[in-house]
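Run log, item B.
One chain of 435 residues. Sequence copied directly from the ordering sheet:
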Amino acid sequence: MIIKQLSIAWEKVTGNPDTVPLEHRVFNAINLLSGIFLLITLPFNLYAGLYRVCLLFVAAIALVCYLYYLARYKGNYTTSSFIYAISCLVLLVSSYIMNDGINGPTFLGFFVTLQMIAAVKPRKKFGMWWLLHIAIAGGLLLFEYDNPGQINHAYINKGMRLSDMFFTYCLTSLLIFFIIYYLRANYHRERILAEKHALDIEKKNRDLELVNLEKNKLFSIVSHDMRSPLASIQSALELLSTDEIEEEDRKAIKKELLWLTGNTSDMLNNLLLWSKSQLDQMTVKLAPIELGRALQETLTLQSKIAEKKGITLSHEIDPALKVMADIDMLQLVVRNLVNNAIKFTNTNGHVAVKAFADGSRCKIEVIDNGKGIPEDMQEEIFKPKHEATYGTMNEKGVGLGLVLCKEFTERQKGSIGFTSQVNVGTTFYITLPLA
């Protein structure tokens, strides 16, 4: 729990990994660690009598705080990182002169500063900063060699100098450890995210390929199967345009024409709705609706279709039932389920629609005594068919009705399922939340 809270606090002060680039977060961390490092060294320098060094470090702490604010909260990383790098060099030069030159701990600071600059500066500029560090370090050594009297030997005794060297080494090594650990942890995180992103893209590509394959097959089926009803409609219209047919034949042709156009319209409607749903252009508008009233017109129309085939369609819906649903989607689902039941039920058969409350949900059942679904087809029943489907009187479909039923039911926070037995019948059911 404590580690998690510390991790959250650290993320807050360095920046959110999802919004702040790694280089910027590293720079924020370096600013914070530099300030802590300088603050820790103050008591030791006071004890050692290095008062001018203490004043220099106090000024450096104030500058580090300002640079952190400039970078973290103003987003000015370029300027603040440049000022930080130059200030480090100025601080190191001053510390070298004030703090025993080559015999002091300043050269450790050059090494650490170079590591920190390497962590935040672009690679193409790192060579320049390395040369600058080498030039300044070499210049200081030459300066001390030519002007040994200009170097301040502030240590009281050898023990104090060695203690300062050891203390500085401990802090600088700890600082380098934190920087390397932070970089490795972030590299590991970025690698995992990159791998996950690559897997997601690969999965989406596979899904798109499958959808595209299904789409091509479906449109191939539709383009083939639409020709037959359209050709029949054309032939019927040509016959009706002549005066050589009897009135009874004319009525029969009109009846057949009406059935053909209705069936073709349903095929096209299902195809268009499926295409639209695949493009994520369907908007679900859930609202409390009275189930009986919402399905009344749909069931009346389906009753006429069933009657023409010699099938009885009955419905038993509690008039008090209210569900949370999209009325257009619900009507489409029930229409497809009932139409499917009629399609696969023989003449003199029976289709029943029942709806009732089942706990906190409403259950709608469409029951038929048709030919049933073979077991080897049941697992694929809610997937797009790659071949046309035929009813008991050769009613043709493109195999999208049940696909739409499943997709639209789930979009309404519902579920769909079925039970079936060959030559006995099938029951499809959907559940929706009660309003």
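Observations after the first pass:
- The beta strands are 287-290, 312-317, 322-325, 350-358, 361-368, 389-390, 396-397, 415-421, 425-433.
- The CA atoms of residues 292 and 358 lie 16 Å apart.
Flagged for discussion on Thursday.
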